[in-house]
Protein: Pilus assembly protein CpaE
Organism: Actinoplanes missouriensis
Amino acid sequence: MLGMETARQLKDAGLIWKPRLGDRFAVPDRDLDDELFVLSNMTIQVHDRPEGRIIGFNGTTEWALDDVELDEAIWLPREDQLRELLGGTFRELRRTGGDYSVRVQLLDTEQIFVASSAEKAYADALVHLLAAAGVHSSE
């Protein structure tokens, strides 16, 4: 699973989360840093409100958490989601020894990103592509 630090790098690089069922996320800075949440039809849903989108926690009394604004959450994309976000730039995932390498091509330039997990290699490539595209967070 993608770590919180890498997920923050993606968010800071300008990755926009369009929540879908099954998405994993965390709510940092609320004494919930070690908790992983998953969007589902029954317990955790995204709601559109006049003041913005929120994530509603239905029936949770354990943390006294009713809802959080979407931008307070950190999306933890899965490997398949990261690969999908790379789109047509993705060329190859390869495992060599204990590491994974992701090869992407942007225009005529190929880049290889090596990490200890496939998710991290995909995420590093995506951070690079967001920077190359000039995408940045408004925060």
In short: The chain has one domain: 4-137. The two ends are 25 Å apart (CA to CA).
